[in-house]
Amino acid sequence: MHPADGSFFIADGHCDTVHLFAREDYQFGRRNTKGHLDLCRLREGGVKLQFFALFIEPEYKPYQALQRALQLAGHLLREINKHREEIVLVKTIKDLEECLQWPKIAALMALEGGEPLEGGTEIVEVFYRLGLRCVGLTWNQRNGLADGVGVGRAAGGLTKAGKILVRSLHRLGIVVDAAHLAPRSFYDLLETAEKPVFVSHANAKALCAHPRNLDDEQLRALREQGGVMGMSFYPGFIAQNNTATLEHLLDHFCHVAEVAGVEILALGSDFDGIETVLPELPDVTCLPVLVEGLQRRGFSPTEVQAILGGNVLKLVRSNLLQEEVL
Predict the structure, then answer these.
(1) Burial 122-157, CB ≥16 within 10 A → b, else e
(2) Where in the chain does DSSP place strands (E)?
(3) What share of the chain is helix, strand, coil (3-state, %, to 5)?
(4) In this structure, are residues 271 and 249 in contact, taking their beta carbons and an 8 Å threshold?
(5) Per-residue pLDDT at 6
(6) Which end of the chain, N or C, is less packed with Cβ atoms under 10 Å?
(7) CB 167 within 8 A of CB 195
(8) Would you state the pLDDT for residue 303?
(9) What is the predicted pLDDT for the residue at 238?
(10) Which letter does DSSP use for residue 38 in this model?
C-alpha cells in the first residue's frame, strides 16, 4: 500500500514551509528543488492534513513579533487562496469534515512562539479571525507566557498570563502546542488545559538526550491527559553525533509505544525547519519508506493508521469548534 493511493490518512503536525513563500526560487504550487515540501510533493507523499507553522525568528522578538506573525500569516493565506482548488484552510470541524470528503489538502495555521499574543484577548481574537488554530506558547526561550527548554535549570512554568491565554485558546477551539516548553511549563500546561494537548514535534529523551525531547514520565503524563506527540524527523532529536537513520527514528516510535501507548504517536516532521534530514527521508515524498518501516517493526495496520494521522485527527476534532464563534 502506498500513502498517496488513499490507503492511509496522513497528517503532519509541523512544518516551517511558510518561510519559503517569499523566496523567488520557490513556488508552493509547483514541484521545487528547494525545501522539503510543496503542493505537488504533499500529494505525492499522501498528506491530507498539514500544520503550517508561523515561526517567529529570535531577531523579531519581542518588539516585532506581532508584525512578523502577521506577515507570515499573510504569506500563508495568499498561497492557500491562490491554490484554493487544491488546498483549504481548516477553521472548524465542519471545514475539516468537508475537506476530508474532497480531493483537497487540509491546512491548519499554527503559531510557533506566543509572543505576538501577549497583547491579550483582543490580539488572540484577531488571529482567530485570520484562521489561527494551533499555538505553541514559546520557542525555547522565556517570554510573558511560559519558559522554554532553552532557559535551562532555572526555568519556571506558565505565568498567570500564560494560563489565562490557554483558557482563551480552548474557548476559541485552538489547539495548544507543548513543544519547546521547559518541564515545569509542560506540567503546568497539562494541569491547566481543558482539552487534549499537542506536542507537535519532539522525540524520546530516553533514546536521545536532547532538551527538546520528552522523558518517559512526560510521555505517560501526556497519555493521561489525552494528548498526542508528533515525532520529529530532525536527526539531532533522534541520535547523537549526526548518526541518525530511519532505523533510529523507528526505535523512537517503538519506545514511545511501549512506554505510553500507540495512542499518543503521530508525525511532526519539522520539514523546512531543519537543516539536515534523515538519508531515507529527504522530503515528504519519501513517507512510504516510513510506512514500510512501521509495518516492518510490527505495528498493525490499525496502529499504523493511528500513527500516520488518526491520532492527530482525533486531537483536532476534540479541540476545534463546530462553527466559528467570532
Answers:
(1) eebebbbebbbbbbbbbbbbbbbbbbbbbbeeebeb
(2) 10-15, 47-55, 87-89, 105-112, 132-136, 175-177, 198-202, 228-231, 265-267
(3) 45, 15, 35
(4) no
(5) 63
(6) C
(7) no
(8) 98
(9) 98
(10) -
On whether the 3-319 domain is CATH 1.10.10.60, my answer is no
d(C-alpha 270, C-alpha 110), whole Å = 13
User: What pLDDT score does 119 carry?
Assistant: 87
DSSP label at residue 310: I
> In 3D, which of 260, 261, 242 has the Cα closest to residue 303?
261
DSSP category for residue 213: S
Q: Which three cell numbers stand for residue 304?
A: 499504523
The SS3 of residue 142 is strand
User: What are the extents of the domains in the chain?
Assistant: 3-319
Report whether 58 contacts 115 (CB < 8 A).
Answer: no
Q: What is the pTM for the complete model shown?
A: 0.97
Task: Enter the C-alpha cell of residue 49.
Answer: 492534513
Confirm if 184 and 157 have CB atoms less than 8 A apart: yes
Residues 6+ apart with CB under 8 A from 132: 73, 109, 110, 111, 174
CA-to-CA distance for 287 and 44, rounded, in angstroms?
A: 9
Mean pLDDT per 10-residue segment, the chain (326 residues) = 70 98 96 97 97 96 95 98 97 96 96 94 96 97 96 95 97 98 98 98 98 98 98 96 94 98 98 97 98 98 98 98 95
Which pLDDT belongs to residue 267? 98
CA atoms of 115 and 278, how far apart (whole Å) = 31
Single-letter amino acid code for the residue at 27: Q
φ, ψ of residue 196 to 5 degrees: the values are: -55, 140
